[in-house]
Amino acid sequence: MVHVLQVDFKMNGPFGDEMAKEFSALAKSINEEDGFVWKIWTENPEKNEAGGIYLFDTKEAAQNYLDMHSKRITSFGITDINAKIFDINAHLTNITKGPLKPHKD
């Protein structure tokens, strides 16, 4: 069963195109994480918030990534990290067209 990891935190930027440029290597590295399926990057420049919604193939993979990622972003000086791991109701998610499978390039 796949699991969603939701992470958000306060961040003073960069956002938008600048974020895409500065974090592209990080984005590519996330693709190599064990159990990783996909990520949606989130940002709210007006409130200085950023984060993401991730899909992992197991709850253990989501937790392992969260542990590692929390240490990484804490090393950047980010402290107020909000994170939750959720089970997914696949039946209802399929009805509402939620992507539960890996993206094919």
From TrEMBL:
SUPFAM superfamilies: Dimeric alpha+beta barrel. The keyword Oxidoreductase applies. It comes from the Bacteria. Keywords: Monooxygenase, Oxidoreductase. Gene3D superfamilies: 3.30.70.100. GO terms for molecular function: monooxygenase activity. NCBIfam families: PRK11118.1 (NF008333). This is Monooxygenase. It comes from Bacillus australimaris.
